[in-house]
Structure formats: C-alpha cells, structure tokens
Amino acid sequence: MNKRKKNIKLSVLIVNFNLSRHVYLLCKRLLKILDDEIEILVYDNNSTDNFLHLLQSIKDKRFSYHYSDTNIGYGSANNYLARLAKAPVFFLLNPDTIIDQRLSYFKKYLRHNNHGDGKDNFIIAPKIFYPNGVVQHNFYFNYSSSSTFIPSLFRAGALYRKFQFTKLGFFLKVFSKFLFGKAALEYLSKERSSNFRHECAWVSGAAFFVSSKVFCNVKGFDKLFFLYSEDEDFCRRAKLAGAKIIFDPSLSVIHQGGGTQKKANIFGLSISEFHKIISSLNYLKKYNNFADVLNYKIFVILSLIIQLKFINNWAFSKKILKAVIRL
After folding, report:
1. Alpha carbons 280 and 303: distance in angstroms, whole number
2. Is it the case that residue 317 has pLDDT exceeding 80?
C-alpha cells in the first residue's frame, strides 16, 4: 500500500466500465462538496463508451484517473486503486451512485465514532436507496449458499419489489417462504432491520467504508471473482480477521443500479448474468460443499431452459454448459 499522508483523511475509490458520464457527474459533484482532506481515484476498465473525454478533462489535484486497455474486473481494479490511496479510510463507491450527504459529514462520522475493537478495524455500509426512494437492502446476516443464489436466477427479488405493495406482493411473500425458505426469510428480515445501526455478516460493494488496515490485512479482493460475490468474500475474510461489519442508516447513498451491463452479451447471456453465475459457482466452491455446488448447477441449467436460452441459440448454450460443468 502507498504511504499514508496525514492530511488525506478519506480516499474515494471508483471503478468505471462504460459509465463514464455517470462517473464524471459523480466526481464533479464530489469535487464541489469535498475539502482538501479527501481524494478521488478512478480506475477505468477499458470502457468503450463515448464519454471518456469527460473524465480526462477533470483537472484537480484531488482527482486521479487511471485507464487500462484491458478489463481486469471490479475487485482487481479496486486493489490497484488501494495501492495508490493515501488515506487511512477508503470509501468504495459504485459509478452509478449519487451522494446526497456532504462527505464532510462522512468524515466527521468516521472520526467521532468508535467502530468496535478498534477505530481502524471496520467496514461500514450506508443505507442505500433506489432513485424512486425504495430501500435497496445492502446488508446480510448470513453467508450465501445455493438456496440464496437460486432465487436470483428467476428474478425473484425484482419480482417481489415490483409487486410488494399489492395483493400479489402478499402472495409472493408467502409463496417465497415456501419455495425459497432461508433466502426468503433473509430478505424479509432485512426489511425489518434497515432503520437501525447493527452488525452483520457482510455488506454490498455498491458503497462501503473500509479502513486501510483491514484492506491490507486481507490483501484486498480475491482475483477469483471478476464481478459479483467479491464483496461477500472480502467481508467474510475481514470478519475472520477480526473486523467489525456494520450497517448504519444515518449514512445514505442513492444507487441507480444496472448500468450498461445489459447491452453486451456473452454466450447469449448479458455480461451481468454471465458473471453472476460464474462468481456464484466460484463462491460455492470456495466455501461450501459439493452437494451445494451441484444443486446450484442444476438450477442454473433449469433457469436457462425456462428463459429459452437453449432454444434461441444452441451453440452458445453448449458453451454455457461447458463453463458451468467445468467449474
């Protein structure tokens, strides 16, 4: 890690992939509201959109931009930025987020709150909202298994959020408990816990603070995870090393979500879907037993059949099958 500078109190780390305009607007806002004790570092994972020139046009000593001609993944890009960061605390932030609080408040919060066994031994996640004001649950009390990954294959969370305030939403809640068991109970328990500060097992990488000490201790993100599951794996290793994982709703961020991932396809799936499946399999192989891995593989194939991926393009589907079976 880079040698820390006493006058830099917070390093904001942002990884961009084809969201250059979002990142530009985010950074311009941050530069307006932050002071000289906060720096912004942006890593671009070989974006091909038409707005890179906007990021390259930012001239500010508190801002640094790093472009790569290859996409090294979310975790590896953050590892690169962390080696350059000068502050004792990092703020990892998705490119499609909006800060609705002053960063000076975040900095004051970090300075005056003791976060467990030591002030430099923490990961803290803010409360996250969708642009329409609905809460985006970003904390978890349990680690993932096949039963928590499987619902996402069938868009269960998105379906529930769409209808949760209707009569159909009540039916989906009851049906989900029966169909998905532990995963449904986890989701519903988060609804009841999103208004108070508490410890948890892990938090989403969309936005969280982490002390440089914790980041160094666990050697950053595992390169095994190109996209998805790297946040859970990171928090899991940090917790084993003694870090406190905290959700605090007094801090808040707006997350637009989705980005441009859906536009490009790999093997007939969106980039997002493909990497989510591969990372989920890698996570299960790293932490869970063979039966759990096999269970997830079966449901991956079933979900692909239901979504007509096999019928639409058999050649690509065979490649998906090979990738899933090989892992």
Report:
1. 15
2. no
Specify the CATH number for 10-135+195-255; select among 3.40.50.2300, 3.40.190.150, 3.40.30.10, 3.90.550.10.
Answer: 3.90.550.10
Distance CA 233, CA 228 (A): 10
Residues sharing a CB contact under 8 Å with residue 123, sequence separation 6 or more, in sequence order:
203, 208, 209, 210, 211, 214, 235, 238, 243, 244, 245, 246
Contact criterion met (CB below 8 Å) for 273 and 152: no
Least Cα distance to 159 among 183, 144, 176, 143 occurs for 176
Residues forming a β-bridge with 30: none
Query: pLDDT digits over 104-158, tens only?
Result: 677 677 766 655 445 689 999 999 998 988 888 899 999 999 988 887 787 665 5
For the entire predicted model, the pTM comes to 0.86
**223-246 tens-digit pLDDT:** 999 999 999 999 999 999 999 999
Contacts of 201 (CB under 8 A, 6+ apart): 140, 141, 142, 143, 235, 236, 239, 245
